[in-house]
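Blackboard transcription, Thursday session:
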Amino acid sequence: MAIQSVDNLISAISAGQTARYDWNKITGASAYTAGRWYDTSLLNGLPIANAWAGTALNWRTCDEATGNGTQIFGIPHGGNVSANIKHLLNMSAWSTAATGVPGTLMLVDLQGYWPGISNNTTSAQTLVGTPSLRYAHGAGCRLYWVQTAVAGATAQNIALSYTDQAGNAGNTLPVTVAMTASGIAGHISHAGVAANNYGPFLPLASGDTGVQNVASVTFSAANTGTGALCLARPLAQITLSVAGLMTEKDLLNQIPSLPQVKDGACLVWLYGAGAATAASTTFAGSIEVVHG
Amino acid sequence: MPIQTLSDLNAAFDAGQWHLQRFQKNAGTAHALQWADPTFASGQPAYDAHVGTPMVFTPCVAQKNDAIYFPGIQPGQHRHLTSATFWSNQGTYNGAGSIVIFDLLGYYPLIDGDSTDLQEADNTLTLPRYTDGEGVGLVIVNHVAPAVQGGVATIAYTDSKGASKSITVGVPNNGQNLVCSGVRNSTATDTGPVTVSLANGTTGVRSIDSIQYTTPPGGLHCAYLIKPLATCLTGDHLVAVEKEFATKNGFHCPRIHDGAWLGWFDRIGSGASRTVAWFGNFTFAWG
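(Written on the board underneath:)
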């Protein structure tokens, strides 16, 4: 029985159908730049770091129980509950450093990624594998590129050929999208403040609301570096507003209300830096879910 | 019949099935941007240094005023925390703060920070609540004798699935009576998280099996096993802030089990280190 009323919600809570987990992540040796977005899954902390296991250019599914098959890096949320439906109920977050605010943390359900894509070629790189997604036809699923090894200093643009939520193949990005020269590991390289930056997600063709597969990635110039193309469903976000102070979010009374957390969801925080964020900055917090 | 509807919750109050418990804790250790446990200060609930036999798991089952008091209830009823209020009358507080309310399930006291020997735990007694350990966090607190440097420990533990795990993690020197839960496997100063970073796939801790320092921090430490229940914020000094869990926590009024040893960690958000006296109320309802 899905939660369909406040009474259903209270009954589910009373029956103990909740789970709460703490998490923490610490940034690496490089500072973050204001206006850029970063993937925190590859940071050390709790859960452990995502090392982007997998074969280059081959799709790697991610889930709660097994992570990427090697590192179980998603924020835990208590396991599968079907035929119940699980929802995100509350979350909190804080940063230890004054430079960690202001900022935005966005919680996404990482469906998986294509690892080992080279920045260092202008040839189309064919991606292998058909994603099995937790969202039918990739509805609401969005793409972002994470630098997994630091990029070189050459400017380059990224182009894709993807299949949208309606099954139309061969879609391309509707605008020129610039990557960031010398982007550090973890940087969502197209998300920054430079011309032709977009983020945290890659823009989709007009009318598209999701992605179910990507056929190829092409760069306009060769640069050193390696990255992963990620496919994720954004669930909610929380703002880090005051230095040293926790932020809380009640997802019943705030929008989006009670986002669903699918069985197997691999929960990852993306971080949008509102200020230059010092190296070795810790972010921490909690999530709370309920099912019914 | 447990509370199952909004009407049940309101009816519980109408029927007098609620209790407001005030608390006051005198100023303890000065701190800022670090998590502190006011148990190490006098007041009500009473001062509790969390001592005992070294590395013997000591379950916590609240009685009277040794933790936040709440009344007993009838079998079949559920007790919930419906609101929490915090304020400080410290005139120089100058910074809003963050609170994590938890149920202290037990602790391993007096871990020798001057020894590099394997310190094995005695788990004759087990978790009194949340017995499988799912969602239970490990918190390291420097108590009784101050550390002298950042340390590194290898902690062997049994996770909530019953699997043996091990993690090598820092024990930062954050100060006596303050949380020293590490993020990295180094002696670096980490002040952010409440709970220790754990090994691949861990979703909770059932017990600690042993601790061995590879870099001894000195002093004595206590390893808590806690079930975090809720969060709330505090205002500046002389400002009372209430977190009402029904309307500000998605109707999740945390369930408070019989014997729950309720405490909290606070983290002052200002840069200047302060000693803070705390006042406030916890409100419970049951049905």
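Lecturer's comment: Chain B touches chain A through 53 residues (CB under 8 Å).
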